[in-house]
Design brief:
- This protein is 48% helix and 8% strand.
- By secondary structure, the chain is α+β, with helices and mostly antiparallel strands.
- The longest helix has 31 residues.
Length: 338
Amino acid sequence: MTHTGTAADDSTTANPTTSGDATAAPLTRRAVREAAERATRRPLARTASTPARTTAARPAAARTGSALGVTRTAATRSAAAPTTSSRKRKFMAPVVLAVAAGMFGTMAVPAAFASTQPTTAADARAAAPVQTQEFDVFAAAGTADTSRDGFGATSTATLAAEKQAEHAKEVEAARAAKAAEFAYDGKTAKDYLADSTTTSTTTDAAATTTSAAPAAAAPAAGTPFSLPAVVATAKQYIGTPYVFGGATPAGFDCSGYVMYVYAQYGISLAHSVPLQDQAGTTIAESEAQPGDVVIFDNEAHDGFYMGNGMIMDAPKPGGAISIRPIWTTDYHIVRFGI
């Protein structure tokens, strides 16, 4: 009789360590808890992949059950604990809405309100009703005489002429007062001119009586006129001090010096630079000779031309008659006696 054994003698049942074809036992609670802890400490992707690496060591049923338990536990804990990014999104959403609403209120509301107001003061005035005014003119105003009064206006030219004449009188008075301070009892320019007139009259009478040829202009004091003679006479006064308004050897100013020297040759000149300029004949500088007169273009000064760019003149207060270089090119030459 063959003994086949009992269920107690079956090695596959009695030996719990045999893992040939037997189904794997379910995981214990401790194993499930440890697996859940490992899932929470690692990224979800790696947790999901961890069971895949153990597929060869476990049966399909155990592998599926354990993986589902671990995944569900990790998902439950992830849903229970919100991440930092989700908290930020929840916080920023109302902030963005508040900022957008503020910007809309700042830009749209004032524009809508302004569109209902008058654009300019001109529009307000145009909308206002037009009011007319009426008034009566006093009856006497219509009969008043509107003719011009008997007053006349002085022209600008007249005022300028009067002012110039007044200034000339003041200058002449100042010159006379200054010349009176210097004692001089010799001949003046007027005396020389008077002598020249007397000599000229006597010469003309003698020529008519004797039927002689007409004589030239009589020289003052018996001296014939010539430019060298003028230079010689003018040099006699070198060193004479400058005196404003002076026209005698006691003191000269520029035009008084020229007037006094030429008066000795019967040539009458005014005590004025502009008038002396008008009385002479302007010549080219290349034709000028010593004895001609240098007139500055601004008509503020004159003197005797001495050749080679030199002038003999009465300079200014504190100076004396001397020969010196002409310090400017703004001048022209005038000749008298021709």
